[in-house]
Amino acid sequence: MLLGVLGGGQLGRMLALAGIPLGVRCRFFDTSAEMPTAHVGECMVGDFHDRGALERFAQGLDVVTYEFENVPVEAARYLERFVAVYPPPVALETAQDRLNEKQLFERLRIPTPAFRAVGSDKELNEAVAALGVPLVVKTRRMGYDGKGQMFVRREEEVGKACAMLGSSSLLVERFVPFEREVSVLAVRAPSGAVVVYPLVENEHEGGILCLSQSPTTLSAFLQKEAEEYAHRILAALEYVGVLAIEFFVYEGRLIANEMAPRVHNSGHFTIEGSATSQFENHLRALLGDPLGATTPRGYAAMVNLIGTIPERARVLEVPGVHLHLYGKMPRPRRKLGHITITAETSHERDERVAMIRRIVSTS
Ligand code: AMP
Fold it and tell me: Which pTM was predicted?
């Protein structure tokens, strides 16, 4: 079985590692030769707009997936002429444009922060008048890890934020004074079967995910709400694979922020913390195999390693810890690896997380 993956980052690397025991080999396509997937599969370097290169990539593949969101959707669509591409490119297209994404949420009656698309000064003034401050201004495309967005507290700062983001297609949305941030990972098989993981609670720093924990004290009501919303999106897009949806919890209800049509950073803990990892379940879905159980194995957490890597001996000294390094050159704000923490009780997990965060913050 040969899986083609658009993108050669850490998500591709973890997909390949999950594929090895299942007899799945991977071929990666990316624009730079410096790929974290270098040691786990065949890597092709090319331009996503080069049809000849895409055709060579497609040769002999059983199925294609993608592991980052900014893959040009035309590349995924072109590959569909030769081989099945999952999740369906319409999911990629929707997630790449925050306006499309928000409109999908609205169409499916999934609550999302009030928003306006802005393409001119007039639309900007109307948006500010309609939504009021505080606001968040976001570029419609190419935003991730807090890039391409600015928080605005006073009306007169909105114009400046738009000019700084320097794009003509922006989205202005109401700031949500959320109580918590959570995500749900759901998986759909071609047969329509769906499995959903327990909600994950997330913390961000400067827009980048730094800590995920699951299971947590989130209520069964929120879990049910998240499952219901996930089912709606999966069915509407005739989805195959893992889908992540990020939510704010506000006044005890979920408000959808964004979705990612791929395996997700907030699901890395599932490698050690769940009966079946998100990576294995993504592969199972792509291959039309039965989906695996999403039951937690104890209490898990994940701490991202951003910009620097702590001394490994200090990390591995902490019980219940698993270190994952991505083989990337350190750079500020770059995700270089993560640490999964597992424990038998939530108290034990909290203690271990505190130890790891101390080590990471002093490295
Ligand atoms: P995003 O790139 O949309 O995932 O945003 C990154 C982070 O910015 C989120 O995880 C939130 O912490 C914060 N954020 C984004 N949009 C809003 C909003 N409308 N209200 C409050 N915080 C937000």
Answer: 0.96
